[in-house]
Specification:
This protein has about 775 residues and is an alpha/beta fold. It is built from 19 helices and 21 strands. The strands form six sheets. It has a seven-stranded mixed β-sheet with strand order 15-2-1-16-17-19-18, with helices on both faces. Strands 5, 6, 10, 11 and 14 form a five-stranded antiparallel β-sheet that branches. A three-stranded antiparallel β-sheet has the order 7-8-9, with no helix packed on it. The two termini are about 45 Å apart.
């Protein structure tokens, strides 16, 4: 039975809504915790719905003519158009209409299995579509995110908040859970402030008005390499505080009374020669003697003696804008905190170009924070553990079951509920570290704001950093972070069962049949395990008693992770690729064992056109796409379609294809009765069928930009529909050889279309 996703998908509206969703800031799963390369909810709703409903061509008894089938297909695509809209994510009417449509095609829906669950977007939307889900990930941070989004809310669905401020009678979904997260989050913040308020004082402006502090801006410092100079060089990438027109401000290092101080200028900076950084790497200029450091010197001194840091400016609140003030003695003194004794530790990765701090001596995760930040984090961590006991007693007093079944065993009583709330509070504290460490920089481009650590999937070295005030009412505060998480919890589906576990996709098969929808890690896109250790050390510190098995190791598992970063394999790039390829192949084989036959599965990857060597197949070097799609074929899957879901339009189509485009590959278990064929017959069929495939795609309004990624899956159908393709010498033709031939034929079919499109664009310009 052919499904809609194997025939059509409204790419433009899906991509448009994906872009809109990325701009949304409230009620999104990302507000509960950060995860890199998180799939958008819009694309997953579209893929899941289109995978679950039949294409009208499967029912000629209902839709006899091609015209009738097209009308019905357009109706289903219109449902997707509404379903993917950001504002309809939690629209019960739209969701229920989609679920009702899905129910027409099956009395019993399949389980949705995601073996690389990551940020949980796929299983979350599967729950929303009415499916039971199984989510796995090797990484414990990803596993915790999945538990928080999928597993915990259904346990307490429809339960009232144990501390509600009004006589509300009806609580649906996770509304009660969200309300208690807000309530106990507020208590947590109040308790933390009472303990730490001395360390976060307001500052007086020039009119002696006390202003709340938004942030403190620091510069790391180090001893000048000139032996006769006693100056500590400020290692600042820049001295601008605000470049917003009419609100410009910058800070100038000034020598006075034998020491370096910083003077605030509240006007546009005209002298651009006043700067500390003198080169692209760690090259800085001493403001006293003019000596220039070398990158090697800064690295050696950092490893040998470490860095000090000096307060350059205090950012205070003045209504709807920031004001920049010179630090007074109180601000300096209150930041001088002893190094806490009981803190989590973990070693940062060495040898990776994506992790710069270890190159400068910042080798432990505790090195990435000021002592005041460490004091805040450890204090709140202890308070979360303490408040759990209070929550449990409040739940018992409210009539909850007083049993000892913990959350890890899917308990539903007072103990499990208190642990659930502590999980969300702990995750909020962990998420806050992305904006509350000594790696958060200051963005002066507008009126001034804090940049989070992970604006990309890497950890650069930050020289001048912004220390946020965790008690200030902004996005960098603990209470705001908790409330944002509660807003997201409130609108979670909180229905259907979910089984979430930490497991290696290449080692542990799923025992039951399922519709598999997943996104394996892409080669060198993100160093997930090492990146997530930044959060893991704090999550483990707070939550290891709740999930002991999840947090049994000091840092996240690394050996089994599917990754191709050479530094993890002693610099051997080929060994890294071999490890990745073997893991992907094994995981796809296990997926094939678990795949249900009635529904297509979906695997997202990254399509990259391989520039072919004309007439030289022997010299063909498969790229990551060639190896991946060959692994899909070798695992016993029939490829039925492909879609460039989530692509970004670029003017030059060929350039975009060479750079790489996201692609969703629609696959089914190959028919055990599939016949063998010859290489010659395969090539003949490819040359005959591919032009017709491309023509049909054009008829369905697939844009030239999307043709290759939409056609490549159907081209692979021609190869994978056979059990084996035999060469003339009697050996089996490899899927890598098939990839070469398919790419070659795609070039032949699409070159003329691309050239015509480029000529049209030139004429329009």
């Amino acid at each position: 039975m052919k499904k809609l996703i194997e025939v059509a998908l409204p790419l433009d509206i899906i991509s448009s809504e994906m872009d809109r969703e990325k701009m949304a800031r409230t009620g999104r799963p990302s507000t509960i915790h950060l995860w890199w390369s998180r799939k958008t909810l819009a694309e997953e709703r579209a893929i899941l719905f289109a995978s679950l409903v039949d294409d009208p061509s499967s029912h000629p008894e209902l839709f006899e003519s091609e015209e009738a089938q097209n009308r019905e297909r357009c109706r289903l695509l219109d449902i997707i158009n509404e379903l993917v809209k950001v504002e309809n994510t939690n629209n019960a009417e739209v969701i229920n209409a989609a679920v009702t449509e899905i129910a027409k095609y099956s009395e019993e829906l399949p389980i949705c299995f995601d073996p690389f669950a990551g940020g949980a977007s796929i299983p979350l939307e599967a729950q929303r579509m009415g499916l039971d889900v199984c989510a796995r990930d090797l990484n414990p941070v990803a596993t915790l995110i999945n538990k928080a989004l999928l597993e915990i809310p259904p346990l307490f669905s429809g339960k009232p908040a144990i501390n509600r401020s009004e006589g509300r009678l009806i609580w649906s979904g996770a509304e009660g859970l969200a309300e208690d997260v807000r309530y106990y989050g507020k208590k947590l913040c109040d308790q933390a402030y009472e303990m730490l308020k001395y360390n976060y004082p307001p500052i007086e402006d020039s009119n002696h008005v006390k202003r709340d502090v938004f942030s403190w801006i620091w510069a790391r410092t180090m001893k000048c390499p000139n032996p006769s100079c006693d100056c500590n060089i400020p290692l600042a990438a820049g001295f601008d505080l605000s470049k917003k027109k009419g609100s410009e401000a910058w800070v100038e290092p000034v020598l006075g009374d034998g020491k370096l101080i910083f003077k605030i200028h509240r006007e546009k900076r005209t002298d651009l020669t006043i700067k500390a950084k003198a080169g692209h790497s760690a090259v800085f200029k001493c403001p006293k003697c003019g000596e220039i450091t070398t990158d090697e010197y800064v690295k050696e001194e950092g490893k040998k003696s470490g860095f000090q840091h000096q307060l350059m400016a205090v950012v205070a609140d003045e209504g709807n804008k920031h004001i920049y003030l010179e630090p007074d003695e109180l601000q300096i003194k209150c930041a001088q905190v002893d190094f806490p004794e009981d803190i989590p530790h973990g070693e940062l990765p060495k040898g990776s170009g994506n992790f710069a701090p270890p190159n400068f001596g910042l080798g432990d995760y505790s090195d990435l924070y000021t002592n005041r930040q460490l004091l805040f984090l450890t204090t709140v961590s202890r308070l979360i553990k303490d408040i759990g006991k209070e929550i449990e007693q409040d739940a018992i007093d409210s009539g909850w079951d007083d049993n000892s079944v913990p959350l890890k065993d899917k308990g539903r009583g007072a103990k499990a509920y208190s642990e659930a709330i502590c999980v969300y509070l702990g995750m909020s504290l962990s998420k806050l570290t992305d904006r509350s460490s000594a790696l958060t920089s200051w963005d002066s481009s507008a009126g001034g704001k804090i940049r989070n650590v992970f604006s990309r999937a890497a950890m650069p070295m930050i020289w001048d950093f912004a220390e946020t005030n965790p008690f200030y009412s902004s996005s960098g505060s603990l209470e705001k972070t908790i409330n944002a998480a509660a807003d997201a919890i409130e609108v979670l589906p909180a229905k259907q069962s979910a089984v979430v576990s930490s497991a290696d996709a290449a080692a542990v098969p799923l025992e039951q049949k399922a519709m598999i929808v997943t996104e394996p890690p892409y080669y060198e896109r993100a160093d997930y395990a090492n990146l997530s250790d930044f959060f893991y050390v704090w999550l483990r510190y707070v939550l290891k008693d709740i999930y002991p098995e999840l947090f049994s190791t000091i840092t996240t598992p690394k050996d089994e992770e599917l990754i191709t970063f050479a530094y993890r394999f002693d610099g051997n790039k080929q060994a890294a690729r071999n490890h990745y390829a073997a893991g992907i192949r094994k995981s796809l084989q296990l997926m094939n064992q678990s795949a249900v036959e009635e529904y297509p599965s979906n695997v997202s990857f990254f399509y990259k056109r391989n520039p072919l060597i004309e007439g030289s197949q022997d010299k063909f070097k498969p790229n990551e796409w060639d190896e991946f799609v060959a692994a899909v074929s070798d695992a016993g899957f029939l490829i039925t379609a492909s879609w460039p879901v989530g692509r970004t339009i670029e003017k030059n189509i060929r350039k975009a294809e060479n750079k790489g485009l996201p692609i969703s590959l629609v696959i089914r278990k190959k028919d055990s009765a599939a016949e063998d064929t010859t290489r010659r017959r395969f090539v003949v069929n490819l040359k005959r069928e591919l032009p017709a495939i491309i023509e049909d795609l054009q008829k369905t309004s697939i844009a030239p930009f999307d043709l290759r990624c939409s056609a490549v899956g159907r081209a692979w159908t021609i190869f994978t529909r056979y059990n084996k393709v035999m060469d003339a010498d009697g050996s089996e033709m490899s899927a890598i050889d098939a990839s070469y031939l398919i790419e070659q034929e795609l070039d032949a079919c699409l070159d003329a279309i691309y050239e015509n499109n480029e000529e049209t664009e030139k004429e329009e310009v």
